[in-house]
Amino acid sequence: MVVRVVRLGSPRVEGEGTRIGTVRRPPRGVPKAEFASRNWYDVWFPNLAPSPETMKLGQEATTPAQWDKFTRKYRAEMSTAESSHTVELLAALSRQSNFSVGCYCENEAHCHRSVLRELLAEKGAALEMSAP
């Protein structure tokens, strides 16, 4: 069993399981009934998305120092009791079932999902070995 960290909208892999959208907003121009069939996500879970203020920091980051500032702020948001429990739950579920978490960003290295991958690993999640 494994959790995959994916780009939402990308083709699904065999056995991927439920796709969880960890984004602040749903995809634009896509009817809600088509989110899953168009490979966006099966379940929308914005609780693991950065706050709008933090998301803006990440989108505007052009230097390593700016990216580090985003990472620190997002990690602080994810350290709240509710978010921490959620990451722990996903880590535990990853050892018993296949699912994926994702965001729209093209480059995982410059996206909150890279940090989410680290947080899941720190909680002992069974992760897909390579970044998609």
Keywords for this entry:
single chain, 4-stranded parallel beta sheet, globular, 12% strand, 4 helices, alpha/beta, 132 residues
Query: Using DSSP, what is the number of strands?
Result: 4
Helix and strand pattern: EEEHHHEH
How many distinct helices? 4
Overall tally of structural domains: 1
Alpha carbon gap, first and last residue: 17 Å
Shape: globular
Mean pLDDT: 94
- Unreliable sequence segments: none
Taking all Cα atoms into account, the compactness measure Rg is 14 Å
Task: Give the % helix.
Answer: 25-40%
* Helix/strand class: alpha/beta
Q: Major sheet, described briefly?
A: 4 strands, parallel
Question: What order do the strands of the largest sheet run in, or round the barrel if closed?
Answer: 1-4-2-3
Strand content: 5-15%
Descriptive overview:
The two termini are 17 Å apart. By secondary structure, the chain is α/β, with parallel strands linked by helices. It is built from four helices and four strands. The chain is globular. 37% of the residues lie in helices and 12% in strands. Helix 3 (81-94) packs across helix 4. The relative contact order is 0.26. The protein has a four-stranded parallel sheet. The protein has one domain.
